[in-house]
Every structure is written in C-alpha cells, then in structure tokens.
Structure of NAD(P)/FAD-dependent oxidoreductase:
Amino acid sequence: MSEAVQHYDVIIIGAGAAGLHCAAHAAARGKSVIVLDHAKQAGKKILISGGGRCNFTNMFASAENYLSDNPHFCKSALKQYTPWDFIALVERHGIAYHEKTLGQLFCDVSAKDIVSMLLKECKQYGAKVQLRTDITAVEYHQQKYELTTSQGQLTSTALVVACGGLSMPKLGATPFGYQLAEQFGHTILPVRAGLVPFTLHDTDKQQYAELSGLAVDVIASTAADAKMSASFTEAMLFTHRGLSGPAMLQLSSYWQAGEVIDINLLPRFELLQQLQQLRQQRPKLGLRSALQEWLPKRLVQVLAQSQGWPNKNLADCNNQLLQKVAEDIQAWRLKPNGTEGYRTAEVTLGGVDTKEISSKTMQSTIQPQLYFIGEVMDVTGWLGGYNFQWAWSSAYACSQHL
Ligand code: FDA
C-alpha cells in the first residue's frame, strides 16, 4: 500500500443503525472514523422500519427479549446504553414520538427523522460516511487493517463490522459480515430468518386462503415438545400465503422446521363453559351462530369446514362435541410448511458466535482491534423496537472502547 493511503483510527463497515450510531460516538471521543457502505443510501432498513415510522426502541427492553446462544451476552451493552439514552438523543433532536403499544416507541412523522439524526450526529463529530463503496479485500498487517475498495485503499487501527444480517437482500443485505468474521477465525452459528410470516402446506393454504386479511387476537405458542418454548399474546393475520401479524412473527423466531404451533383463537375465555351455558339458555341456537357471538363469521365458517363441525342446534350438541369445538378453537394445532424466508424476514437469527466477543466492548477475543456490532452477531430481539435497541446499545458499548 502506498504512503498516500488514507488512514483512520476506525473503519466501520455498514452504514446501518449500528454503524452510524457507533461512528458518531467514536468520533465524539476524538477518533478519526469512516463508515463504508455499498448501498446508495444510509440506513435503508431504518427508513422502511415500523411501516415508515421506525419503532426505534422499546422502553422495557431487557435480556429476556433477546434470543442468543448466550442469553447473558446482551446484558452489559443494554446496561451501558439503555432505551432512555436513545430516547434522550431523539428528544435532543426534537423528534416527536409516541408509544404505540407494549413500550414500543415510534416517530410521529417519519423514520427519515432517525436517519437524519444519525447522519447529523456523524457530521457534527466529523465521522465520514462513504456510500457506494464495494469492499473487495480486507487484510491485517503490522497492526493495521488494509481495505481494498471500489473507491481506493484505506487503512485503520480498528475495524468494526456492522454489516447486519441476511434479511431483505433487496435492501442491501449480504453475508459479508459473516465472511469477514470467518476470515479472522470466528465461528458463525447457523443462521435462519426470524420475525417472518409462516407459510402453510397446500391443503391448509387452500382452506384458509379465503380468510386473507382477517386479524384476530390470539395466544400463539410453540408446542409443548418444541426445541424452544415461547408464547405470545398478540394479533394474528391470515394472509394468502399463510399466517402473519405480530403473534406469528414473534413465534417464527422460536419455531424450528417441522414443528407444530398451537393457537388459542379466543384467549382468556371459558369457551366450553360459555357454550354449555348458552345450550341451556338458547337450546335452539345453532352451534355456528353461537360461535359467531365471539368470533368473526368468516372464521367460524371456515373452521367448521376444516374441523368437520356438524351443523346442529346447541341442544343437539353433547358435551363431547362442545369440548372438541372448544379445543379446535382454543388449542388449534397447525404445522406450518415453512416461513417466507429472508425475502420478508425482519431479522436474521444466529450469526457471529458471541463466545468469541467481549460482551463489554464488542471486541473480538481472537483478533486484535476487530469489533462486531448489531445484527451480524448472534443476538436477535423480539418484534417491537428491541432490534434497534440492540444496534444502539452494542454500537455505543463498542464506541467507548475503541
Ligand atoms: P443494518 O441492516 O441496519 O445495516 C447493515 C448495513 O451494512 C447496511 O447499510 C448494508 O447496506 C451494509 N452492508 C451489508 N453488506 C455490505 C457489504 N458487503 N459492503 C458494504 N456494506 C454492506 N427493528 C426494530 O427494532 N424496530 C422496527 O421497527 C424494525 N422494523 C423493521 C422492518 C423491516 C422491514 C426490517 C427488514 C427490519 C426491521 N427491524 C426493526 C430490524 C432492524 O432493522 C435491524 O435489526 C437493524 O437494522 C440492524 O442494524 P444493523 O446496523 O446491525 O444492520
């Protein structure tokens, strides 16, 4: 490399949530910093997140909201930089926000405000953001990282990998972060799509397709014998491909291929008892009409067909039948065909194994001056602002130790 090569204290690969946040904080501490990204625009995922309003954090974020082979790994960073620290930053920039539900904070106006804020912070402290830059080689020589890029060569003392996961390749996601980690001897834990809609087998798909667009509040759970147990009380949405909505997206992160899922379509309701009571009070009422008191008509009709409920008055329904109907509704068991995969997934589960990373500094324990932040690591949050909070917290923790 020639003498003219530009040298930085820190090169960050990835101008997403984690990369931009880390750049501003490291620059604020006096480091010379450049962020490189192959995309034309910084923070593309932020821009489309939360339906364009960015669910930028969750007030109640804690280690329990994250999946990782090491569930304790995220604790230190979440403590070093809490949701309240990010909220304070948002408030300093005068960005209006509101709580939608369950501690989820969204911009009132647009996710663009969050990207502008991060870019302003970078500019204020002198961190450079260089887009449209393809990185073709990264080497480590004489305590320096040497990067060959489509925009020339650069060197740095520290290298921060903030390339994110594989979800939404359309937005610029690549496996580059994993490849770089492997190049320097890191272990990559198996990756798969998370926070993603389920697809159904053909028969189920045909049966439930006409419910497409219908949303119901449910309790969705992995089966008792599932590899990972989880249960979420949120809305479920029927789609023309399968099942989506917050409850299903959350569950998808815990579900393993081939497992069944259990859905309670009438949570917190004594259905069997209510049906028996109604049988006494209104014996001539049809079973399906009775169910329509609590469930959408379309859903009752489709379930009656798929579960084979007879078209009888309540008076003609014995306890055994009512029990079956209650179970069909409150312990509805389905075997998804799979998920929609990275094309629509919000996150990637798995990634760079945290066993080889310091939880306090995000620094590699096997390669000098190499750091990992954000989604590229094996830390994945629930739906609801937890993934951005991980990006902010891990980025900050790293920035303070560069
Ligand atoms: P991120 O993906 O943000 O950034 C990685 C950057 O690296 C990108 O800019 C990419 O272009 C760049 N890059 C990749 N490969 C490269 C290469 N080879 N060379 C150079 N650059 C490269 N979370 C949340 O908390 N609240 C929400 O509302 C949402 N909503 C949401 C909606 C949708 C549609 C998606 C897909 C995701 C979400 N998320 C979310 C998840 C959240 O967006 C995600 O967890 C964070 O953006 C992760 O931040 P990172 O900085 O780690 O990666």
